[in-house]
Amino acid sequence: MNNKELLDAAKQVSKNAYAKYSDxxxxxxxxxxxxxxxxxxxxxxxxxxxxxxxxxxxxxTAIAQGETSRLTAVAIFSPKTKLCxxxxxCRQWFSEFEQxxxxxxxxxxxxxxxxxxxxxxxxxxxxxxIK
Length: 131
Description:
The chain has helices at 3-14, 54-64, 88-96, 119-122; strands at 27-32, 37-41, 71-77, 104-108, 114-118. It is of the alpha+beta class. The chain has a 5-stranded mixed β-sheet with strand order 2-1-3-4-5.
């Protein structure tokens, strides 16, 4: 899938968001090396710490469905804002699943077209567990 198709999938799933507290719907589409894509939307909770972001929802869905190939890209969309950046927790999740390769982070630019960033652009100097 190209960046526009990934962003379109994120846009479509953002309509399913359960965002009754923030009214900030987000959708995400995760692309894997296998060519498969997985979508997720944010799911809020009255206890904000229990909320699930769209990006982590998409990655969790991939894992639950048995995906074992490398995460290669994540597209993120919100109808509320352009350049809907992932939160810190989601950025660290991307880092967890990059498997030594660069993940593309795709956002809707100010002109409505997809804009691509590398994982290093969105989370420089990230935490890595030294074994």
